[in-house]
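Record 1 of the preview.
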Amino acid sequence: MIRPINTSFTKILHIASDEELRRRFMILDESIKANMRFGLLLEVLDKVAEEAALSYVNRYFPEARVVTAAIDNIAVRNVTDMSRDVHFYARINHVGRSSLEIGIRVEQPGNPTHHIASCYFTMVARSGVGEDATSVVLPGLEYTEEIEKQRAAKALKRREEYKQQQALLHEPPSREEFEMLAGLHKAQDEPGFNGLLAGQLTAGAWERMYPEQENVPKKIFGGYLIRRAYELASICSEQVAPNRPIPSAVNRINFFHPVRMGDKLHYTTRVVYTSGSLICVEANIERISRDRTTKALSNSCLFTFVNVDDELKPQPVPVVYPSNYSEDARYLAAHRSCLSMHMHP
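->
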């Protein structure tokens, strides 16, 4: 059996020496802090996870492919320095029946080393093409070292915690949460209220999928989709941020249905929650088949931004007010998600 250490995979973005690559990853062609395109970084992360998973799966099933099922919480620890290369260190933490959890650490070596983020991707092994594709049963890993056993246990724990969080979404508000929501609704009834209503803080876009976005045969690259969702979410967050919103976390990204060539995609983003300097934006991607007979939610994402000044110091943002049951539910879900990630204003 193979040990996790034997599944290690490394990718380096040579932005320090490759001027063309550096320019592609820049937000602005000038010297500002936190100048890396985070959405493009997410796209690279998805590709790194795919390649790490595929190298393991193809040992046993040469014709099999892997697709992204979910991206777990990503907390941004430090902003990137555009004068340093970016290193992605990937390793398989756990192998289930047909799924794999890939842990990726993003760093910029130097003095000191910058730890940008750590993230976890759930990939699923599939064989066949289109409607004939089936899941592949994978052999497990051999966990010899204690650290390998701990990482495997944490992978299973993350899976259980997500299930618990999903179940919690259907739980009624606690007394404290009820009072929080009641206060937000009461404020809207006050004379002269001019707060920001959640229902008005939205942004949307449409796009057709073409062969150039293909990854797995007949299916669109998931990394491209989450980059587009993030970029629109970032634009949406600017409706609330008085200064500059930069990424603080990816709370969760789910992949529900594959997107195929020819599909029409409807991106919708909405500000669902604010607290202190934090802004939570929900992004959904709905796919409509080319013959318009199928409509389904492809992806759901929750991104958290922090509003900062030119020196990247957190600055307060206005309160966002939910006005109906759906907005209350989104507000509460984002509130709980931020608490579970131990994020503070």
